[in-house]
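Quick illustration for those who missed Monday's session on complexes.
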Amino acid sequence: MVRQPTRYGGTNWLAESESAARDRTHFGLTQERWHQMKIGVIGCGYLGAVHAACMSTVGHQVYGYEIDVAKAEGLNSARTPFFEPGFDEMLSEQLGTGRLAFGSDPQPLADCDAVFICVGTPQLKGELAADTRYVTAAFETVADVVRSNALIIGKSTVPVGTADRASQLLAERAPHLTVAWNPEFLREGKAVKDTLRPDRLVFGVENEGSEELLREIYADPIADGCPVLVTDFPTAELVKVAANSFLATKISFINAMSEVCEVVGADVTQLADAIGYDARIGRSFLGAGLGFGGGCLPKDIRAFMARAGELGVDQALSFLREVDAINMRRRSRMVEMAHEQLGGTVIGQRIAVLGAAFKPDSDDIRDSPALNVAAQLLLRGADVVVTDPQAVENARRKWPDLTFADTPMEALQKADLILLLTEWDEYKQLDPQQVGAVVRHKQIIDGRNALDPQSWRDAGFVYRALGRPRV
Ligand code: UDX
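Prediction with uridine-5'-diphosphate-xylopyranose bound:
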């Protein structure tokens, strides 16, 4: 089939549709369940790029609008700006169908049926609150550009009240447009699965027409039994920050227990197993260790506290201050433990740090606990060598003074101390005997409670971990 150029810079999806439909066996989707709509996505970072490609996978025609020209061009040439398992392959495949294109011209959004707003809401410098200027700019863009009666669907994590404000803005400037809020719950490292097969869909809407359109867009996961909750705007906005606050609280709860365990010589991993068997509690997100980081949990709980303050209900969320403080204390505790293990000073000692990303299966170093600890030790005079399967380049840009190694075995050479700070599978599978043969001193601190203490001790290592007894 001859591909014809389109205004999106991709290929003519109508000419392509027959072959595209034949190809679509991916992710278990069949031709009968192909619902074609024109969808725009504003903001093609982590959330937007994955969402755009996933929408194309289920058969929609998708245009991703991204103001960063280099990023848009990269995506259009199947170059992913981040590491996400399964995404590269999916992006190339979807670009190949002609249904997906990216660009930095907003005009192709003009006749969309729906436009998703997926821009970032980072923490404001020097404040707890979120910076919502990109969300406002996105709504201004749709007001200026979109001519069809499109549904404008917010996905970004925002302070409660944002959707109402956006709705007012559109009522004044583009009354033919309607707002809906559809928060996103994707996890980095599992973003493709979480987007194609979400565990729930939340539709914050003001009328039945908006709900119907959202049901059509998400016909596939809904047909597979994904629960749909239809709410008002504030509830939809709150669901996201409430969920992230709960997850952060769960992690900090077990890390608070970890602090107590350390003092009395108890084992926090056994404690977590034992309480986790209670179905009301559950074992997930009770992984004690260095705590949470990334682009979401830390900034979301802070923005939520800031918004609660503005609303006069700051007392209701004062516990989140403690959640944040417990989390940050884990990082200082890890630095302290390294000092203890190295006889009171880290100056001139070689510390091998395994992991730089904020969690495994990601190259994201935003508020990474691992990198925070590595940098603190560097600033205290240690010779720190960091390795990570995916995040070395990002980490080097942020902390050029750290030393980086491409492989764990290279990082471990002549180490006086090993810190496991991000629990990548390949680190969990390291052979303690082999590691023991290359280090200078056999000492390891497991910052994620991810290793089998016995096998390391059997190989002659001093094994220590946060929240576990010393032997
Ligand atoms: C999170 C939410 O899970 C997701 O629903 C939301 O859309 C975005 O924010 P993400 O930031 O990708 O996703 O990471 P997540 O898997 O939630 O982990 C967050 C942090 O908590 C990581 O640093 C991880 O290492 C840490 N964590 C997680 C723990 O310390 N212990 C645990 O038991 C689980």
